[in-house]
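Late entry, written up from scratch paper. The run itself happened at the end of the previous shift, but nothing got recorded in the book at the time, so transcribing now.
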Amino acid sequence: MSTTRKSIPYALFWNWDHSTTWCLNVPGSQNAGVFNGYTKKPEYLEKDYGRMIDWAAENGINAVGMAGMLRDRHGGVETARKICAYGMDKGVRVYAIIGLFAYGGVFYEGNSPYSMSKFLEENPDCAGKDANGHLLRANPYAYYGNIREPQGCPSSPRLKEYILDSLDWLFKTIPELGGIQMESGDNGVCQCQKCKERRGSGAIKENMSVEDMARIYPDAAAVVRNRNKDAWVICETYHHFKDEAFKQPYSTVPPAFKPFETMPEATFFQWKCDQVLAENTWDENDRLPPLFSKFNNVMRSHLGTHWRGGLRKDFAVEGIRRQCRLSYTSGFNAVSLFGEDSTYYPNVEFNYLALRYFADNPMNTLQQFADDVMAPKLGSTMLAQDYVNMAMNAKKAELLPKFQRDIVAILSSLTNPEHIRRWINFADFIGTLAWENIAFQGR
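Output as recorded:
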């Protein structure tokens, strides 16, 4: 960790296109998922991202990412260029979240030569194989998703050439694009004979491969920077740096990691922290491994969403505080959170504000955030503390009727329309939990 830096400079949002819902009351809105179709009218992608970019520009969010950026369904290249250009005008970098061996490639869904799903269907010799020698397809593992995409073989030279050509086309065709979050894929590992021989006799322990990342990330990053020297290149690891897959001796760099050494220091490596936060196995004594400490590093989480058994629009400020504090002490200079929901919902608004606040003030407390940020938006410091207490105990069904009565009393004392709106919305959030847990007793 830098001895001079007192904060985390960068705060990012990362989203799927189909479940970004900043426009309210829109038919076809979705609240979770991967491998989903886009079910809203096409024009809503630009509207949703426009509102999010406006808020990001006003509140210190430096960049917003989009998985599913290129689909025929919502306008393909034309819409993507408009969104990226709008972000540039507002000072918010818009980056594409792209699978290299998976997730459809550069053009996520549509009739394009840069749709990797289409390419693999037409060139099965470049596709990955499962343990039985069959075509390796991603199995939908989340809510609603039903697109079964073929996955590529990391040992195929022809596929690698196709991937690099696709990235070159992407940054040539969308010059306004602010960067890329590149992913090797986390839904299965190719087990063809070439991949088995390359990896050796070690058992496949995960649905992803660090070696596969190292084989493609440096070359892919070079192609991107050749087209746009200022583009952010974010390399997804799918891990926390303490995970077994990324443990390394501090004196030497393991052979599988060697290609990472060649990458420019401006590269971002992205990690995730949900499990270590839940298990409390990450503390202020932990530091990034030396190999990665020279790069930019992003710590992302799924807090405040349905992912990992969570609740979308939940009050996740304490988790975000811990994410930022431990990221800071570990040596990170960027943090990231899903930004899919509208700030109409006060829990969501406070989560987003917490990301920037604790990035700027990583050693501050939840109490300080409540006093500094929440109190002016809720009516007083005392009311902010009441909100925190209710929000953090909202899973306790026996307390919900009291919380509902307390909010009614609070509303009777307020006159500011925005204070009233936030408390009414929070009352509805508490009411939905009471309805499910009390009226239906969890049935």
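The CA atoms of residues 30 and 442 lie 23 Å apart.
(Scratch paper discarded after transcription.)
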